[in-house]
């Protein structure tokens, strides 16, 4: 903590000296921010006028990514977001304002849009982000807070709107790159792109692999991505997308306190003999049409199909899933007024479907297994589950935006209906069907006033909801089949007040305070005899979340810029569950949280600061520090109260401070551009915990890697 404070104060001192010297500035990044239009709000509006908290991750941030394989690198400077990369690969846990902190895998309650195509399933669950090659991303919009009035249950926590690069400026161009580093990490990426009179295109392919910093943590992945934009006329734009990703990730599982002391790099004893891993094989086909009827009217239509296969092995079962996930959405926009008074109205509908065929075979251990990246695992002929999940959701929404000179008002309303049905094929059809349906309405009202370039004030209120996700419904603590029918949606009310602005071309800031009250919040528990990967969910009661999110960007010298993101979080449960299913300790291994208990994995303080210095043209250095304060681990009321064995349950995880550094150099050779970069993560080899989970067995700890070094070479043609 002291190192972080000293480092931060040094930044501030340099900043003050720079302002006193009044040297000329490189204002490229500030100009980019001034010209940004928020599109994830479904009615595009400039960042200056936007009536909510938003972060824009552009090329100035994306260019400084050592590995470029996971979202934790891309969103490192976004406040309000916590990302736990516990596997050294692309598998991460993400939460925004505490929503999603208890997810076993994937993203829960966070809407993800990739080049206009929704990633979330009908329940609002995004299984992963394996389809994204972060080295090819152009920009990311991060909207924080409940946006269910725009995206339904997908937007309970916020929105990630990810846009990849389009074709280049010449008929044929592209680049190749190679990165290698610690723990046998390697990534190879090749891209071809171009542009003609009425279309542009981009095709990329990457292969990534590594061993991870722990035993049984190896991973590999392939991503093929093709994107074409057609411009048949000034009124029509058509985007066609094809992506295919295959990702394999071994799971070392969490460690107990005893195992952590023995060797923090070891895997849980179950992981290797059962060869625990996850593998995803997915294809996405998408088509987007934008049609301008006249100056006042336009239409957007999106259709997609996402078939994929998934396998997960554990010490209890090998689970196989086959998915088919089509979707369609439509939006009509009307633009009225001119001059100082402008009105924009949007109405639309979202339709999603998903069929999942699931079967589980009982696992068997192989104590003589030699560690490798092999996908072999021992399975018996004991069929634990054979079921079909059929889901569909319909969302109808309306948006209104009013601009009167410097004043802006935004309102949105949405109604969602979700249907979930599970058929157990091991039972007679009339007995083996369970269903769980939800219907919810949500709304958002926001205002902003642009006093001048230095100060824009904004405030908003939103009502959101987060339904039980597909994963939570399908994990039934009562049996290996059927839905967990006790679950109900969590609903939230959020109030937000903030300010943003620019000081000339050298400084940008945003600060946001919020209060979010949630009813029927969730908690995690386990059931005796169900294996270490069988995680179940219940409604814990209510919670109250308060926080402050701060970000600023400053050009402190002509050739030096500083970015800082700081988050203060105060997330607590305020009432306990009254459902007897979750309060019966003979059934549930974890007691529901008690009032006043902190939500797990929610440090009160988070800081990330990064400075980029370019002493000469084409040469740059970057230095960064990240800090997280301590956080609670368990949701169990007894663990929180210190009533459980301290040798097994340590409820508070101490925080950490890490330092990183990097350098890059560019040069030209004939008509090509060459770029070399070198980076070091965790410079002082600090021991820290990357992730903890509220595991009733005490296997809660996922230690982070020590110092890692990466080098890369990129050739642009």
Number of helices: 9
How confident overall, as mean pLDDT? 89
Give the C-alpha Rg. Answer: 25 Å
Give the termini distance in whole angstroms: 45 Å
Unreliable runs, pLDDT <50, ≥5 residues?
A: 1-27
The computed structural class is: mainly beta
Write down the CATH topology: Maltoporin, Chain A
Instruction: Tell me the number of structural domains.
Output: 1
Return the CATH class. Answer: Mainly Beta
Number of strands: 37
What composes the largest sheet?
Answer: 22 strands, antiparallel, barrel
Percent helix? under 10%
CATH-level-2 architecture: Beta Barrel
- Name the CATH superfamily assignment: TonB-dependent receptor, beta-barrel domain
Portion of residues in beta strands equals over 45%
Given the C-alpha coordinates, what overall shape results?
Answer: globular
Write the SSE topology:
Layout: H1 2-21, H2 28-34, E1 37-38, E2 45-46, E3 54-57, H3 59-62, H4 71-74, E4 81-84, E5 93-96, E6 107-108, E7 110-114, E8 117-118, E9 125-126, E10 137-144, H5 148-151, E11 158-164, E12 173-181, E13 185-195, E14 199-210, E15 219-233, E16 236-250, H6 257-262, E17 277-294, E18 297-313, E19 317-338, E20 341-364, E21 378-404, E22 407-424, E23 433-450, E24 456-466, H7 470-474, E25 490-503, E26 507-525, E27 536-557, E28 560-576, H8 580-583, E29 605-616, E30 619-628, E31 631-632, H9 637-640, E32 652-653, E33 656-669, E34 672-681, E35 689-692, E36 701-703, E37 708-716
